[in-house]
Amino acid sequence: MMVLYYIRHGQPIYELNKLTELGQKQADAVGERLALLGIDKIFSSPSNRAIETAMPLSRVTGKEIEILDFADEDDVARDFMVDDGTGVVRWASDVEKIRTAFAMPDIKTRYDWYQDPIFSDYNFGEGIRRIDKATDSFLERLGYRHNRKCGYFEPISPTEEKIALFAHAGFGQVFMSSVLDIPYPQIANQFVIGNTGVSRIHFEVQFGICVPRVHMFSSDAHIYKKNLPDI
Q1: Separation in Å, CA 191 to CA 27, 116, 208
Q2: 23 — phi, psi (to 5°)?
Q3: Which residues contact 21 (CB under 8 A, 6 or more apart)?
């Protein structure tokens, strides 16, 4: 059974695209935690703050970091950050009009939610399709082909590998939506990914198919173990 660990970067200085002193301590802590699990492959967003977070694990395990361009937060931000009506650009789910729409049952349960007229001024559909395509390609490379029509993965060459992917909160919400076949409005409104939060997804094959299951979401136990602030 393949296990995918998704890790958000540590506390950042966004303007400099690097970690704060606390963020580096968080990265050391999560690297120590993951090193005990026998990680086989390490992937990262091309963003420096994500790479810095992945570096401690890479040093301890001797595994190289492979960059995934599609996990870049800047690309996701262009599709999912919008003007809140006052000239301030925010993530879509932090804008009152959109958060309210995302909570509506006839929106949050639809896979084609972005086609609703309320979102006609936004670029959400293009962003969802781009991430879906790239995510499917990434997971197929790891041995699991996504059958979106049926909502499961076909195990074409299943492995026992443990995969670590270091990236971001904004990208992570879209990525989780794509992997889990849960409409993005539900993830964006209700799931928060904290600094160096670790999520664990099991790709267990049963009955000839694989339905990824979340066994842990944004766990920050390593932060508490090291007595670090939870910020």
Answers
A1: 21, 22, 30
A2: -60, -35
A3: none
DSSP assignment of 35-51 equals: HTTT--EEEE-SSHHHH
195 closest CA partner among 216, 214, 162, 172: 172
CA distance 175 to 180: 8
User: Residue 172 sits in a domain of what CATH number?
Assistant: 3.40.50.1240
The whole-chain average pLDDT of the chain stands at 97
157 in a domain, yes or no? yes
DSSP symbol at 85: S
**Smallest Cα–Cα separation from 72: which of 130, 23, 19, 15?**
130
Q: Is residue 60 part of a domain?
A: yes
The domain in which residue 21 lies consists of 2-77+124-199
Q: What is the pLDDT of residues 115-146, one digit of tens each?
A: 999 999 999 999 999 999 999 999 999 999 99
In a domain, 65, yes or no: yes
Residue 93 domain-assigned?
no
71: which 2 tokens? 């996990």
Rg from Cα positions in the chain: 17
Indicate the pTM of the whole model: 0.97
Residue 216 and residue 86: Cα distance in Å, rounded? 37
- Number of domains comprising the chain: 1
